[in-house]
Amino acid sequence: MYPWIGKFLYPSRWGKLLAFRRQQEHYFLPLVAEIKSQKPSQDNYSYVRSVLDLRIHELGDMQVPEGQLVSLISEFLGNASDSTGAALEWTMANLVKHPEVQTKLRAEINNIVCGSKGFIEDADLSRMPYLRAVVLESIRRHPTIPFVMRHVDGDEAAKALGVSRLPRGGTTVNFLVGKISRNPEVWSNPMSFSPERFMPGGEGESVDLTGTREIKMMPFGAGRRVCPGMTLAMFHLGYFVANLVREFEWLEADGDEAVDFTEYHGFPFTTMKRGLRARLVPLVHLTK
Prior knowledge:
The chain is of the alpha+beta class. It contains nine helices and eight strands. The strands form four sheets. Strands 1-2 form a two-stranded antiparallel ribbon. It has a two-stranded antiparallel sheet with strand order 3-4.
């Protein structure tokens, strides 16, 4: 409620916070200035432009202040890259630990991307069902979002929660995402890494990531407040994983640097407590 108290209670941390804020402004304010200088059009209408065009009616149609604009841009870009990066690390760690899955995935990739083309195009990803299965199994087994909080109220919500009634004004429910996606009543052998469960005929073949039909897993939240970047995140994960697997063989490191799946429950993402260490062997691709 009173964030300014922090500078007196934790002066060193407050200094780091201010330094980080200055760094954000150093990176993002030139971006804002460049977009302001451009003439708006449908071809270059970006997220930053949409925020610049906002008006705060309660303050006389004032534009979003520059400081808040920097915070919004940082949240939009940072959350997208950090969560995708964490999911990518979990995925590659599982491929290191399961070389048979890695080999099968590489075979699918090379079967699609072969000959003189020599690189993966965006359209190729839709022809790689096993790649999609690997990504889905990774975010099921290791969701990067630890929980989703929702405010609920009314008799229907009480019935769904298995209680007689809710407090006046409703209450907040904390959905543990990992518990949902690793529920043994929904998934067979939920702690195992098995992409085949998302292939045709598998229990997760038609899984709904938006939570509109059912909720077997919710790595991007669910319902009306599902992550708006879900489609982009799935594309990025598939593209990065496909290229990393095609260009390198990923082998487990020895000794203390072996894969450790211990989770670190930070805020706002769940990451590997000890970052992935692996031995990479470059692969040679033959062209026609």
